[in-house]
């Protein structure tokens, strides 16, 4: 959400846009620090209890963000949000697949984790739109209200499952050594890092193009096409995971190239946003399915590792993007993103035996 209201947020809190962008970074840092240790510490908890604790933590974080007039306090609130958000991200995939038969695991994961992409797709442009109508703080206040309603719904409708017994948990290092896990984590890191560099500072990228007033429209274009990508990933993930991930890397690289060369042409900026959405929307489903398939019984620990890699990418994007903005033209953001997508694509192509396999999932 800060990405959609960055100029207004920075102005209100009396800091620069690159400094305000660190509200995204500290959220990710909270998730990085917490995802693995908290997942391991709470893996024996009943799943619904843990889900409710995480959601309540997000309600507190958003409430403090909405009310705070102090940037340091805002950063603390965003870090708290990242801590419970990282725990939530690691929890959801495994929770979803336990609700369905084995042949529906991919679809269940696509639906559950598609929520995160819908949030990026709809929430950020909605926040940018609200910032035009009312103060940016109302966007965070609305999230608190929605979160409280979500808590009631979870209690009423979501089934509970026990945690894992201690004897079934695999150590972290052993999970990393499972063939296929490391390549998926590397692709997660580089792909999300490239995304975050552009996404966090999209308002700053558009400003010198005289498109600052179109931030919400560009993000909405990204978001709507992302929804199509989520549907495609859910439908094909178990048969075409490797091909879909290759296409995602190629489309995103094409987007970064277009933004670098033709950023002064508004129509091509919108076309690039559409390619970006098509590349990114289903990525969460693809990566989480890939790491779950590779890790097998170590799925929860592998998901925590993927959550950490994802949030390292988000945090790194906020930091690297801020450095780029402070020392160069905003157009350089797209070139840095492109440089990161090349090794991501190379890794997907190389990991054809483990990680991003050619055969149907579940056939090995």
In short:
Helix content is 78%, strand content 0%. It contains 15 helices and no strands. The N and C termini lie far apart (40 Å).
Helices and strands in order, then pairings?
Blueprint: H1 6-13, H2 17-20, H3 22-41, H4 47-67, H5 71-97, H6 105-133, H7 137-157, H8 172-177, H9 181-200, H10 202-206, H11 215-262, H12 266-280, H13 283-295, H14 299-327, H15 332-350
Walkthrough of the structure:
This protein is an all-alpha fold and about 375 residues long. It has 15 helices and no strands. α4 (about 45-65) runs antiparallel to α5, α5 (about 70-95) packs antiparallel against α6 and α6 (about 105-135) runs antiparallel to α13 (about 285-295). It is globular and about 55 Å long. The chain starts with 5 loop residues before the first helix and ends in a 14-residue tail after the last helix. The model has no long low-confidence stretch (mean pLDDT about 85).
Low-pLDDT runs: none
Span between termini: 40 Å
Write down the overall mean pLDDT.
Answer: 85
How many strands, which pairing sense, and closed or not: the largest β-sheet? none
Helix/strand-derived category reads mainly alpha
Query: What's the alpha carbon Rg, rounded to whole Å?
Result: 19 Å
Total strands: 0
What spatial form do the alpha-carbon principal axes imply?
Answer: globular
Order of helices and strands: HHHHHHHHHHHHHHH
> Approximately how much beta-strand content do the residues carry?
under 5%
Report the oligomer.
single chain
Number of H- or I-type helical stretches: 15
């Amino acid at each position: 959400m800060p990405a959609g209201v960055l100029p207004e947020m920075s102005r209100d809190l009396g800091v620069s846009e690159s400094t305000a962008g660190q509200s995204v970074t500290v959220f990710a840092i909270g998730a990085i620090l917490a995802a693995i240790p908290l997942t391991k510490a709470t893996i024996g908890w009943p799943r619904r209890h843990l889900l409710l604790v995480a959601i309540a933590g997000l309600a507190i974080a958003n409430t403090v963000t909405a009310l705070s007039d102090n940037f340091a306090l805002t950063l603390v609130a965003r870090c708290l949000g990242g801590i419970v958000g990282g725990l939530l991200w690691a929890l959801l995939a495994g929770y979803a697949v336990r609700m369905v038969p084995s042949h529906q695991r991919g679809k269940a994961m696509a639906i559950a984790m598609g929520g995160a992409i819908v949030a990026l797709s709809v929430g950020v442009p909605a926040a940018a739109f609200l910032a035009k109508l009312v103060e940016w703080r109302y966007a965070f206040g609305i999230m608190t209200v929605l979160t409280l309603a979500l808590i009631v719904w979870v209690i009423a409708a979501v089934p509970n499952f026990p945690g894992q017994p201690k004897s079934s948990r695999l150590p972290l290092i052993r999970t990393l050594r499972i063939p296929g896990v490391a390549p998926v984590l590397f692709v997660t890191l580089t792909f999300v890092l490239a995304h975050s560099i552009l996404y966090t500072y999209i308002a700053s990228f558009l400003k010198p193009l005289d498109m600052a007033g179109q931030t919400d429209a560009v993000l909405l274009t990204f978001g709507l096409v992302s929804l199509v990508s989520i549907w495609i990933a859910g439908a094909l993930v178990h048969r075409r995971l490797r091909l879909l991930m290759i296409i995602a890397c190629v489309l995103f690289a094409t987007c970064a190239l277009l933004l670098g060369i033709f950023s002064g042409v508004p129509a091509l900026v919108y076309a690039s946003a559409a390619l970006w959405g098509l590349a990114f929307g289903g990525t969460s489903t693809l990566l989480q399915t890939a790491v779950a398939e590779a890790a097998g019984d170590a799925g929860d620990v592998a998901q925590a590792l993927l959550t950490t890699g994802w949030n390292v990418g988000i945090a790194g994007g906020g930091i690297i993007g801020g450095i780029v903005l402070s020392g160069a033209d905003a157009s350089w953001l797209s070139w840095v993103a492109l440089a990161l997508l090349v090794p991501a694509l190379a890794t997907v192509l190389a990991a054809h035996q483990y990680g991003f396999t050619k055969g149907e999932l579940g056939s090995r």
